[in-house]
Automatic annotation (TrEMBL):
UniProt keyword annotation of DNA repair present: no
Involved pathway(s): Carbohydrate metabolism; pentose and glucuronate interconversion
Catalytic reactions of this protein: D-mannonate = 2-dehydro-3-deoxy-D-gluconate + H2O
Keyword Lyase: yes
Name assigned to this protein: Mannonate dehydratase
Molecular function as annotated in GO: ferrous iron binding; manganese ion binding; mannonate dehydratase activity
Organism: Paenibacillus rhizovicinus
Domain of life of the source: Bacteria
Cofactor(s) needed for function: Fe(2+); Mn(2+)
EC class: lyase
Originating gene: uxuA
Keywords recorded for this protein, A-Z: Iron, Lyase, Manganese
Length: 363
């Protein structure tokens, strides 16, 4: 397990590379050019500047999260070819600076969606929260109307740029079914996987978060069956997944340990975090500790150990602790605690296995 930490860039993150350096065992920074609009080719000078900054701080830059996919690609519009060409050029440029894994997602319109960014927990910390009935009963167009009338009102992830296009995006997705999305993701893979393979870059799709359709928009990367179907579209080590335990764990039917065993050789990147799912389907992002949520983080780390996982891992969203002011879900403290928990589990698994094999050898 090669530990990494997501960083949003100087001036765009409250955390410094020097602070990350003090977290034990972090070798790499998971990075992106966060201000690049989806669909545009990344400029080489900016890639190089970021590489130099991260390398100078003593980290590798092997993992990029994310190179975002333009909506026209997900919609299957004729204009997609232009954006796919740009995507290929970006893959080639990232390969030139030594990138090994690109994380991306195929979620229409929204990336992760929550109803509250700072839900207070019993211990006074705050965390990202999803109130299922609120989303289920929400007419998104009605919300857009309300937001336009009252700019104070918004939803996490509904950035002003996105909001401006929301009405037309919802229009564009009318009639787009899950099967259309499957066709469109296949078209995308047919184009990019050969380029990624030639460049030695593993593409790693992130599951949908939450892993079910929202606002009538289709979502397809939701669980074990969909990953199986996805991986079969291109049976290549360069077509892989970012196994995110928190996103998948929002649906308690998802057996993440079984997925790690089934897809072991196709997981170049692991996001490891916990969520607590309530009876009514609401969920909150808790500490990484198994006992604090409904995802068996201890079992997951054991499964990675047992399948000989040598890929990259990172803690995912954390709580906001000790008054830290930070990007929602991306503070320093809880993710650092998360890493130490993951290392504790990992080191114990390694030790237990080596003691067991020592005993075997002695027999
Ligand atoms: C949620 C996060 C995501 C992720 C993107 C990847 O679990 O890891 O926001 O960064 O979806 O494209
Ligand atoms: Mn994730």
């Amino acid at each position: 397990m090669r530990m990494t930490f997501r960083w949003f860039g100087a001036g765009n993150d409250t955390i410094s590379l020097a602070q990350i350096k003090q977290i034990p065992g972090v070798e790499g920074i998971v990075w992106s050019l966060h201000d690049m609009p989806a669909g545009e080719e990344w400029p080489m000078d900016r890639i190089i500047a970021l590489r130099d900054e991260v390398l100078a701080a003593g980290f590798h830059i092997d993992v990029v999260e994310s190179v975002n996919v333009h909506e026209d690609i997900k919609l299957g519009l004729p204009s997609r070819d232009r954006y796919i060409e740009n995507y290929k050029r970006t893959i080639e440029k990232l390969a030139q600076v030594g990138v090994k894994v690109i994380c991306y997602n195929f979620m229409p319109v929204f990336d992760w969606l929550r109803t509250e960014l700072h839900k207070e927990m019993a211990d006074g910390s705050t965390a990202l929260f999803y109130e299922k009935s609120r989303i289920d009963n929400l007419d998104p167009m009605e919300l857009v109307r309300q937001i336009n009338a009252n700019s104070e009102l918004t939803m996490p992830g509904w950035e002003p740029e996105r909001l401006a296009h929301l009405t037309s995006l919802f229009e564009a997705y009318r009639g787009v079914t899950e099967e259309h999305l499957w066709d469109n993701v296949k078209y995308f893979l047919d184009e990019i996987i050969p380029v990624a393979a030639r460049c030695g870059i593993k593409m790693a799709i992130h599951p949908d978060d939450p892993p079910w359709p929202i606002f009538g928009l289709p979502r397809i990367m939701t669980g074990q069956a969909s990953f199986r179907r996805f991986l079969a579209l291109h049976d290549s080590p360069y077509n892989g997944i970012t196994l995110c335990s928190g996103s998948l764990g929002a649906n308690p039917d998802n057996d993440i340990i079984a997925m790690i065993h089934e897809f072991a050789d196709r997981i170049p990147f692991a996001h490891i975090r916990n969520v607590n799912v309530y009876e009514n389907g609401d969920f909150i992002e808790t500490s990484h500790r198994t006992q604090d949520g409904t995802v068996d983080i201890a079992g997951i780390v054991q499964a990675y150990h047992d399948t000989g996982f040598t890929g990259y891992a990172r803690p995912d969203h954390g709580r906001h602790l000790w008054g830290e002011v930070c990007r929602p879900g991306y503070g320093l403290y809880d993710r650092a605690l998360g890493i130490m928990y993951l290392w504790g589990l990992w080191d114990a698994a390694v030790r237990t296995a080596s003691l067991a094999s020592g005993k075997e050898a002695a027999q």
